[in-house]
Amino acid sequence: MTHAHAPVAGVILAGGRASRMGGRDKAFAAVAGEPIVVRTVRVFRSLFPQVLVSTNRPARFAALGVQTVADRHPGAGPLAGIHAAMLESRYPHVFVAACDMPGLDPDVIRLVVARIGAADAVVPRWDGDVEPLHAVYALRTLPAVEAALASGRHAMRDFLQTVTVDWVGEAELRALGGAAASLTNVNTPEDLAGVGGRFEEP
Description:
Blueprint: E1 8-13, E2 29-31, E3 34-35, H1 36-47, E4 50-54, E5 67-69, H2 78-88, E6 93-98, H3 106-113, E7 121-126, E8 129-130, E9 134-138, H4 142-151, H5 156-160, E10 165-168, H6 170-174, H7 179-182, H8 189-194, E11 197-199
Parallel strand pairs: 1-4, 1-6, 4-5, 7-10
Antiparallel strand pairs: 2-3, 2-11, 6-9, 7-8, 7-9
Helix pairs in contact: 2-4
């Protein structure tokens, strides 16, 4: 398999407690008969030379034969997962996605990755908001990540204020047909049902 794009590690954040799913693991919610995380690993393997799953329950992912990383700062949310993955990345950038995004689109991911440049992060703007968990982060932000975790200000929005961000405009994203699906999260059982999903936990 050739990786003709920028050397980037793909990171799947699967550390959440999924409280809005009644405690069930969103990564194993199935859409079109396939757990979201299984599809995401397949997509990422086609795009990135290294794929990492950030999880504190690595045994659940053993069957996927994928590298897992545990948080060094448990309970600190997605930023802690990004931190753990950065420490294991063999590449200078990571593309990070949440484990509850069943429609991740390779072309949309390529658009974000293609914008890697001088900025510390490449983050989409979407639906009048931002999507920090469908984004690229440079490993050189590790000191900023660690400072945010140490100070207890680990919300992604707070962290993004401490680094330089290249915001990907919504219009540019919407020009790609897959953007709406790529940027959709399923946070609740209703969201999951809305994309035709159900639970198929191992």
